[in-house]
Amino acid sequence: MRVRRELSPTLSTYCLRGSIRRSQHYVRIVTGETTFEQYVEVMFQSDAVFESLCLSQTNDSSEAQRMVAANIELQNCVNQYHDPQNFTNSLDELTVEKRKQFIDFNCAEFEEIKKCYIPFERQMKVCLSERDLSMARTLIILEKEFEFICENEGANVVPMHRSNYSFCAGNLNVLLQQCSEAQWQQLRRKTISTMTTQDCSTFEELSNCFQENIKKCGAPLFAQLFAIRYRDIVRQTPCSELIAVRED
């Protein structure tokens, strides 16, 4: 049995990975539309959720197993190129003088990581509905986040006199739990098509609270990356029309 290391929170789920308690039991065969709780599992890159969504869409156990295998291989591939602890430590030690070296090294890594996504995305196209494929791309592939870090020679990565990236990355669950658990409970069983204006407001409130907590913790870059992801999620929901998405 292969042992998989956790994907970096800065690459895969830097803002929510581990932040929401995972269910003790997961229903393998999914019927109906995908819920937000299941999308969280997609973001966690859970083998079980990919298998279930693929079976629901294709009714083909062979394709479902290929989806699981592609998910495992993606994580193994990413872990060849990225050390999350080194990434956060480097952010905490970042100076103006060190920024170019940091950007050059990590953006070269990102280019290699993008290649890891190719077979995974190919299998997702076989296994997932159009809506789930779009959401999974947003939650996992994160090209816009890469672009934000790397554009303009890393101008968006600002050295801080005192940052706390390593600590914040390991305590994202605490930062989210400081927001409303009741509000998350309201959203977890919802699907994209059943979201109401109130649900959109709740989602926005949770997002704003979480971003503010990340900034206060001492990891402003992570808050900016989460904002990019949040806007892309909202654009795929009725919230894009029900509530205006604020652009920075």
Automatic annotation (TrEMBL):
PANTHER family: EG:BACR42I17.2 PROTEIN-RELATED
UniProt source species: Anopheles albimanus
Protein name: Uncharacterized protein
Organism domain of life: Eukaryota
Pfam families cross-referenced by the UniProt entry: DUF1397
